[in-house]
Amino acid sequence: MANKYLIYCTKEQEQEFLLSLQLIEKNTFQTLYSVSNHIEDHYEYLEIPKKDGTKRKLMVPDPLLKKIQKNILNHILYGINTSTYAKAYKKGNNIITNALPHVNQPKILKLDIKNFFNHITFEQIKTTVFKEEYFPESIATLLTILSTYHGYLPQGAPTSPAISNIILKEFDEIIGAWCHQKQITYTRYCDDLTFSGNIEKKEIIDFVQTELQKMGFQLNHKKTKLLTKKHRQIITGIVVNEHLRAPRNYRKEIRKQMYYCQKFGIENHLKYHHLDIDIENYKKSLKGKILFVLQINPNDQEFKNYLKWIS
Asked: In sequence order, what are the residues at sequence separation of 6 or more whose Cβ sits closer than 8 angstroms to the Cβ of residue 292?
């Protein structure tokens, strides 16, 4: 993006710049400013249950703000480089590309960043993402307001994942270079940091913790896990001890459900086991689990047959 404007610009230049970003249509500037002036009114608070029994707290934008944020994502954020060590929220990357580098390793260390999104601040976003050499001051401030809630990055906004990768680019490169020197494999999937090889737990934790504190982050020590070959080594839901595979108990549960469905029919299965769920929603859920297994191992004939039956 060319630096064709001064840090401060006229109203006309500001509007011309906004149009170049394709955030809104012409003659709708007032809507954009109105949303930014009442940003809190455009979010809804939601809580979603997590596997560990806790709840994930989300701030979900309304349709108008979501449309604006998706334009910011598509026309600005996707054009900003992130680290190759970051495996989440990027085209061509997923839980498999995050887990694959750690297959068949003697030790795996899993670390977690505490309250990740909430600790990414307004000032960090403005100075790191919407840099002054590319954005006039007023535009950078506006874009940051449209991407934050109460001064932090809201989990639930479409812009937040990409912004988090941009914010942590330098951190990822520092950690990655350090690990490369020590022949350690490193990847980051959102707030999950994974290290593998012949590793020293304390050495890694001390170094990572120091670099995180420079950015205002902390480790969630309750989620620190060191897994050796004696353990089932799971990364982002995938077992990596010898090769990639879905966890045995996960596959076993799908087999059990498919057995009942195929023998008694889905409706009778749900009634007998007192499962209060709509048949179509149940099928969608079961199909999603089967697809997860096939994503890891596309040639699994057993689960290909399950998918054909449930579809």
From this structure: 237, 246, 250
Quote the tokens at residue 2: 């060319």
For residue 275, give the 3-state DSSP assignment.
Answer: coil
Dump pLDDT digits (tens) for 147-177.
Answer: 999 999 999 999 999 999 999 999 999 999 9
pLDDT digits (tens, 9 = 90+) for 39-96: 999 999 998 887 777 788 899 999 999 999 999 999 999 999 999 999 999 888 999 9
Q: How far, in Å, CA of 213 to CA of 126, rounded? A: 19
DSSP 18-54: HHHTTSS-TT-HHHHHHHHHTGGGGEEEEEEE-TTS-
CA distance 273 to 306: 20
In this predicted model, what pLDDT tens digit does every residue of 102-127 receive, in sequence order? 999 999 999 999 999 999 999 999 99
SS3 112: strand
Instruction: Yes or no: say if 293 and 246 are a contact pair by the CB < 8 Å rule.
Output: yes
CB 216 within 8 A of CB 121: yes
> Kind of pairing, strands 225-228 and 238-239?
unpaired
To the nearest whole number, what is the mean pLDDT of the chain? 91
Name every residue whose Cβ is closer than 8 Å to that of residue 67 and which is 6 or more positions away in sequence: none
